[in-house]
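INFO worker-7 received task bundle
INFO bundle size: 2
INFO processing item 0
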Amino acid sequence: MHDGHAARRVVDIITGSWQAQALYAAVALNLPDHIAAGQRTDASLAAATGSDPDAITRLMRLLLAMNVFEQAPDNGYQTTSVSELLRSDTEVSMRDMIELYGEEFHRAWGAIVPAVRTGTSGFEQAFGTSLHAYLAHVPGAGPRFLRAMNAGNVFFPDVLTAYDFSGGHTVVDVAGGSGRLLSVILQAHPHLHGVLFDQPHMIPEARAHLDGAVGRDRYDAVAGDIFVAVPQDADVYLLSRILQDWDDDRSVALLSNIRKALPENGRLLILERVIPEDGSEMLPLLYDLHLLMAAGGRGRSLQGYCDILAAAGLHLESVHTLALETRLLVVAPAAAPMTHE
């Protein structure tokens, strides 16, 4: 006998990407900006975007059902809290994230079958190069990727309540990108000095943000290779969504470098999604597979993190829940650092 509920579930799952691409179309056509500026009818939106009027009507009908926009009392369109996050002129805009997921990552997920069969990234299958090489060599791709990642950083303020920074002096953000997490911490704790550590081409991006956010005298920007060494003797080290990009061997190598630099009373703060053993949270499972599609990376269970920490002479001290199913792992030095050949 045909199971109508199961069939509906299949249809809901398989059409999920259509909603994602409709949201991407809204951003690519700048619909939130146009509606906020007063272009509030199908005809005016079609004219403003150079689009087919009938196609705009059909797209907007779906976006209304998705609560991206809503009908105004005069039957025009108006923005919602969702579409306000997609405008280009707001500080908390998520449009760069939507564009990345709707373009490059959408193509990478299209290669899911060869990626699963080979264990190599869907991005590499689709583009013929790794994500890291693409970001380094395609003009504008690196800064755009950073902006997209910044759009998903809504859990950064939660770190301030999850960990007590009052007793520290120096915080090192390892592979800290544009320094958004570091600036959140420095703004909340004026007594702290920050160190942004990343590859040379990332330093201008970090300075551009940190100079305005906290001032040049509150931080140092240091270029280097995280797999060679990291700055020494800070009170707190940060690793935000970095270990997810690397296999266990590379992750242990990075963590070992931090262990060598970490004082006995220092702490390492790791921000990652943790795969639940019971499958109770969907987002970490989705992002685990997304990491394979995007860069050949991987999520880990709590035990998986404990294993690589132990191999680097570290141990997990506490776990804190942040927004968007993200976890803060507070890590301390083990009794003695382990050596690796």
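INFO item 0 finished
INFO processing item 1
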Amino acid sequence: MSDGPYRSLPMPLRWKTAAKCAYLPSFTTREIADALEHAAERDCRAELSAPFVGRVSALVIGPAEPSLFRDAPEAELNTMHRESASPMEAGFIRNAIDALQDGYRGAEALQRATENMVSDRLLAGFRQVEEHMQREASDGRVRMVRSRLEGAHGQVDLAGIAQRVLRMPDAPSRAPVVTHAGLDDGVPL
């Protein structure tokens, strides 16, 4: 008997926990969303260093006094994009450029870019979990996991994760990830 296909998932423990929450019916949608928030935030913090985030933030927010050269931040962001060290860095810069091109400016552009990067990471994690489940579980269980992940995605606080990734002082605190370990843990009655 298997402990569940999430055990052999070739992802970090935080994603295995999120997959376990989606796979087991004893976890609520809110608990799945909390596990997803934890996994996405940890991925972002692991791949985006504080100096890198600070440099992108400075370029996107820009100086207090706008200059004549409005395209200067985009040009420098394009240079950083070509020199990015990881796919997440490249995605963050690409989302920042897109936000600027969509007309967002300052802190609003930075927030939008970060939320989109976090959403991209969540969706990539969903695809990886679903792909693994496809090989390990029945079609009915795969559909159920997909449905539970999609339902939890709507409850994920992208804005809060973005603020924590940007290391903003007023960022909301993250809810702890719930794990069911004993006989008394389980579906609420």
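INFO item 1 finished
INFO post-check item 1: The radius of gyration is 19 Å.
INFO post-check item 1: The mean pLDDT is 83.
INFO worker-7 idle
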